Structure formats: C-alpha cells, structure tokens
Amino acid sequence: MTRKEKQMLDRYTIEPMMTLFSEESKFKLWLEVELAVLKAKVKMNILPAETYEKIKTSASFDLKRIKDLEEIYQHDMIAFIVSVQESLETAGHGDAKEELHKGITSYDIEDPAMILLIRKALNEIIQELEGLIRTTANKALEHKWTFMMARTHGQFAEPSTFGHLLKVAQAEFERSLARLRIVLNNDLIEGKISGAVGVYGGIDPMLEKLALEELGLIPAKAETQILQRDRHASLLSNLAILGGSIERSCRTFWEMMRSDVGELQEPRKSTQRGSSAMPQKRNPILTERLLGLPRLLRAYAHAAMENIATPEGRDISQSSVERHIIPDSLSLTHYMIIKFKGLVQKLVVFPEKMFDKIIKDSMGTWAAQRVRMALMDSGIPYDEAYQFTQKMSFLAMDEKVHLFKILKKQSHSISSREKRTAKEIIGLQKLQTCFNPIEYVRVGIEKIFQQ
Fold it and tell me: I want to staple 163 with a disulfide (CB 3.0 to 4.6 A). Which of 144, 196, 399, 423 is the partner?
C-alpha cells in the first residue's frame, strides 16, 4: 500500500492529488531526475551508455526501507539514494551504484522534481478551472433574465439579474486562469542542477542544460543551493486569490440562502440532515465549507512569502513548511474548484422570490435614483431632488406603501420652494417608466453578455 504524506487531509483531497502527493510519487520523480542527469552524462561522453542502461532498467526503491534508513541518517535524500543503490546491488549491478547522485547535491534533484510535481498538479487545477468557467457561463446564460434585487451594504440597491451575478464570477475566474497560466509558463519552467552553492563547482553547466531539457525544463539564470522561493510564493498567492474568488461567490450565495431571503438553496440529498437538534434546518454546509477553506490558502500563501527569505546559500527552515503548504494548497484549490462547480451546476434558484424583492419587498424604492434624475432633467436642483426622493423612499419602506403609489397621489410637494409634485413635474407616463426594471437594465445586461 502506498504510504501518503500525512499533512494532507483525505476529507478535502480528490484524486489525482492524493496520488500525486504520495511519497511514492515523490521518489519516482527523484529517480526520474537522477536518470536525466545520468542520461546527460552519456550524451557528454562522461558515462558509458551500458552503465546508464543498467541503472535505468534496474533502479528502484522501497518505501519502508527509505523510512528505516531515514531514521538512521536523518536525511531523506541519502535514505533514498541508499535504497536505490541497494536495488542495483540486488539486480547484480553493484558496479554501477556509485554513479548515482555523483557530483550533485540534494536540491539538484529535489527542486527540479518539485517543479515537475507542481506543474502536474497545477495542470490539473487549470483543467478543472476551465470546466468551472464553462459551468458558470452556462448557468449565467440560463439566468440571463432572472431578475433580482442587487444589495449593497446589505440594503436594497437596484435591479440586476442572477445571470449578471454569475458573469461577474465567470470573469473573476477567467482572470485567475490567466494568472495561473502565467505562473505555469514563467515561474514554474526553470530548474537547477548547479551544485551545492549554485556556482557549478565540479559540474559542467552543459550537464544541467541537457538534464533539464530531458525533463522539459530550462536552467535558471542564477541560483544558490536551491531555486529561490519567489516562484513558489507566486503560485500560492495566486491560489489564494482564486480561493478568495470562490469565497466571494459563496458569501453572496450564503446571504441569498438565508431563511428570511430564500432566493437560493444549496443542492442536498434527500437523506441529508442539517442539525442534530433541529430537523427543520437546511444548512448550506457545502457553501460554508467553501467559505472556510480559503482561510487556509491565505495562511499558506503567507507562509510561502516567509519562505522567500532563505539566508545566504540556504538553510532548511523552508523545507518543513513546504512539505505542508505546497501539497495542501494545490489539493485544497483542486477540491474547492470541483465542489464549487458542482454547487453552481445544481444550485436551486427561486426566480419568483427574486423578482418579488424588486416588485414587492423593496416597495419600489430601487427607482428612487431614476425619479431623482427625471426631476433633475426637469430643472429641479440636485439637492432638492435628492432630499425629496430620500424622504419618499423612507416613507414607502416605513409605511409599506409602494413608492409609485405615494408619488402618484400628488400629496407631497418637492420642497418648500418647489410646490409642485413629482407627478406634475415629470408626468405620469414618464413616472411609470421609472419603475420598469426590465427597461432599466436591458441594454447593460445585453452588453455584459456580448463580451
């Protein structure tokens, strides 16, 4: 059975991330880099081709043996090398074992291997993110004309559509996709095989070039014993941003799922239970889970920032941190994208309740700005128009009377200076137009969906 790294929580890890970040996967990549170095030596006529073939065909490792050896050496790379050397002896190729890891340092192997592993995981994330963008776009189109009341500061603002809300999320995810592609193609394309302090002591730079070429990487311009950690910090920062974007949508969904709002409902199984005490509850457990996990991504991004400042050639302080933050950040982001995609896909939407917020619950006060603008177009000064529409809007909400009915009655003059009513100044037909939400947002919604 494959031994997994214990820092990853199975509950929030979906394949292939569990397999990618297993110890077996890590050591396979270490061996892949070791073999790339040996192949480069063959190309440079430093190593006989027969020796390379012996190692390539017979080299293997044993996870339990590595664990036991690490207890002795307190160094996982040495434990790995010894295990592989033992496999060569067992295969009758003990004469070739000394060529393994000859003339190079641990991070000449570990850093290229880590970049390869991160690239595999990030490609999985990018693929899932592309799927999330398509899902969000489809859901947005489905609800292009599902009218709802937009809220700002927790208050009724103006009409929008649920499709518009989803288009905002789609555009946000597209920006994250573009950023992650930049990270993949810029920050995560380099490796180093430049020795103990990065100056190629005893190493021909051509060896690095040929070995990394074999792995699909290019040599970094200048490094110490390790690749500098700004690359890794860039990755984790962008994962945290993506997590924050998912969180932002979930925050809005959660408000719309409240019992007193009832515009959305999380998809749920018929056997699902929301509370051990209160059977009436329909708790949005997935939405709340996706609200919580981004906090971890931000914490991991902060830790990655701390890892940049490795002193001089390096110390080992960043290593213990990376064993947690890199697999966790990548696996959690992967998990969040997949779960949020499912949430968007199966989200239960109540269009009637959304429209009621515009027509009934807001008492038409969303149109206050339109009425104010119409008054100003008719010559009423801004301050007078603002004070009047504010006063009438508050009256509508306090007395639960639609704003249009109040303005239609002609019982409220604009101000002490202006004795006419809004109906007299604007006219009934234009006043009615002010309260048409479809006409108000049609052009803008069409523009947003055409992009």
Answer: 144
